[in-house]
Amino acid sequence: xxxxxxxxxxxxxxxxxxxxxxxxxxxxxxxxxxxxxxxxxxxxxxxxxxxxxxxxxxxxxxxxxxxxxxxxxxxxxxxxxxxxxxxxxxxxxxxxxxxxxxxxxxxxxxxxxxxxxxxxxxxxxxxxxxxxxxxxxxxxxxxxxxxxxxxxxxxxxxxxxxxxxxxxxxxxxxxxxxxxxxxxxxxxxxxxxxxxxxxxxxxxxxxxxxxxxxxxxxxxxxxxxxxxxxxxxxxxxxxxxxxxxxxxxxxxxxxxxxxxxxxxxxxxxxxxxxxxxxxxxxxxxxxxxxxxxxxxxxxxxxxxxxxxxxxxxxxxxxxxxxxxx
Length: 325
Ligand SMILES: Nc1ncnc2c1ncn2[C@@H]1O[C@H](COP(=O)(O)OP(=O)(O)O)[C@@H](O)[C@H]1O
Ligand SMILES: [Mg+2]
Description:
Elements: E1 3-10, H1 16-29, E2 35-42, E3 48-49, E4 65-68, H2 79-87, H3 96-103, H4 105-114, E5 122-126, E6 143-147, E7 157-159, H5 162-173, E8 178-183, E9 187-196, E10 201-202, E11 206-209, H6 217-222, E12 227-229, H7 236-252, E13 257-266, E14 271-278, H8 288-295, H9 300-318
Parallel strand pairs: 1-2, 1-4
Antiparallel strand pairs: 2-3, 5-8, 6-7, 6-8, 9-10, 9-11, 9-13, 11-12, 13-14
The chain binds adenosine-5'-diphosphate and magnesium ion.
Adenosine-5'-diphosphate is lined by residues 120, 144, 146, 150-153, 156, 182, 184-185, 189, 210, 214-215, 262, 264, 275-276.
């Protein structure tokens, strides 16, 4: 009997098109002798076709496991994971808590800082209480300004003076009620892929060479000019340290299944900083998460097998939990 895999893709976020590309790569990698793929497309308006997954346990008997491949808001942030929990379906990737915590850059930093992991200094402000003078009391220019919950560099800008900071705060505030200002780290940008439930493993890291001032939306998806180097140009000891921090951060946020952990390396001090955790990383033909695993000895068909295996294992492990007396 083939395993019936419901792939959910599209979605309401700004990363709808990226999700379509990620889903295409995943569906192509699912062995047709082992899996029967069921398509669940969510439109930009939030409409499901051919029909939505039902929230009631047992109401989706035609599905064995779900592979949500929705990036960003309403998909990577715990919302769809909540639906799948209600439905009692096994699914690939992080659970509700880790999805929401990783999506919120402020929450993610707090969880990692509490474990002694290195995160970039930052100031967090609510969008209706913006204080442009506050960040300078903690660190100097240049700074990065971001909406706390988003992705694909949307709403993010670099500010080199108070005027640019004021404009950057206004822009970020359009995308979230919480805004983060960080000290800009000058050096390298690195990524590491992590896989697993209780005993997560880190891949070889890669290095991103943005073609613009930073790795912004255009550079990520439109220009196709940013370069990626695997393995990253780091010393053996820095590579080992990066992989250690990636696994620790994954555990700190209670990730399961998979995540891509992103770093900034400060050239002047040789220090590594955690930048962010993506619980549903890109899976397009040019995406780094599958590429890093391929270089680490796990090609895409094996990677999707492993992700489904992890989803089923987590579901099985939780089967005997009691939810009432
Ligand atoms: N503190 C920082 N110092 C230097 N560059 C940064 C910093 N924060 C973000 N960037 C740049 O902005 C890009 C997008 O920021 P990131 O925090 O990764 O947001 P997103 O979730 O949108 O990917 C990064 O890939 C990097 O190029
Ligand atoms: Mg990023």
